[in-house]
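User: Fold this; tokens only.

Assistant: Input:
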Amino acid sequence: MSSPRWLQKLHSLGLEFWLSLPLLGIAFWVGGGILTDKVLSRPYRTVDKLQADTQLEVQLSVTVLVIKAEIKKSEGFTRVQVKTTDSALKKLEFEFPVTDLSGVEAMIAQELKLSREDVRKLVRYQVKY
């Protein structure tokens, strides 16, 4: 019993192999889609969550060279520039909502963790009306 002639031609050209490739491709495509859906729809838990409502407090220990306080009486605030000897942190800038000298000194002393006497020695004022 011989096979039909068209089947012999198909076998001689190797089309049996080539015709099965699209079926394998479709099988991998469907299987990959199902696997991807399962992996991507799986819930996962994060251990560390981002907390945007907390503020970081940074402790710096720098040697202060000079403090320049620019008091803007009409605008109601004081802009303070602090120059340091630290190579990584050369200048600090602050804005305080006070314009009187004792209040500015107190806020600078609190922010830099210095005594008020040390602040008085280092600070240079410029008052703008």
